[in-house]
Amino acid sequence: MRFYSIIIPIYNRPDEIKELLESLTQQSFDNFEIIVVEDGSTIKCEEICQSFSSKLNLRYFYKENSGQGFSRNYGFKKAEGDYYIVFDSDCIIPSDYFETVETYLNVNPLDAFGGPDAAMDSFTIVQKAISYSMTSFFTTGGIRGGKKQLEKFRPRSFNMGISKEVFEKTDGYNITRMGEDIEFSIRIEKAGFKTGLIPDAKVYHKRRTKLSQFYKQLFFFGRGRINIFRFYKSELKAVHLLPLFFVLGLFFWFLTPLWSRQLFEWGGTAFAVYYILIGADAFRKTRNPFVAGLSILTSFIQLFAYGMGFINESFNYVKQPKPTGLK
Questions:
Q1: Lesser CB count within 10 Å: N end or C end of the chain?
Q2: According to CATH, what is the number of the domain 4-123+152-210?
């Protein structure tokens, strides 16, 4: 039976970690330790962590702010497990998560793995719509753990596991933010380790609660994709360009009345059909007309914000093409 070390970096989000820790007390498999790394927060979660000391094998550490990637490395160095599991502080873990992982690894050994994310019934309508937009094949191509994928799955740090050997050989994250988990996953592959998706090892990911926060997050993700390009030129694939084409197509569509009314109408029809499909798919999955309707808006934000971030960092790349932020 494997021993797991759960690494949770946190920055000024004590309420989130309370829900996460509470979910970890409900696990059917409990052969794990928890390492909370407070990344220079001004609003600390130490007291909340102490309140779980009788229920969980938990260690709390406070350090100067260095960003999430390097804070995870800090936790890896403190870990004693056979596998290190990284969760974001805004995740809630189903009670069978570790039992699912342990069972899967017994049959299909992996050096590094990830799982999908989903929305709980208790999430707000906004959170459910955002969750749909971040996991739908229509918006992300399924690359974040969907059953259908346009690109090879790579573990993301909201739900990611690595063996102790992986950390010892790779030395963890090379950059602390802006695509740090993708860069790490690519480097794990290049080191010869076996990686994969555990389809049933899902987490409930609360993500952002406001649409403005969601826009900022996706804008940052778009910038991160270009940052990955700085390290690995071959890793910019067609699926990553879809939000860029969406933004350029949208701008082009707004200008088409200047020379072709018919082309404007065709473009409008194409956009309308696309979002009708999104709305229908969201309703099929959630059975909630309000979530389905809002998913149309969040999907637009998801594509537009990512595309704008992609464009923004592309201009920055012209100024600074070499990788930055290395350890």
A1: N
A2: 3.90.550.10
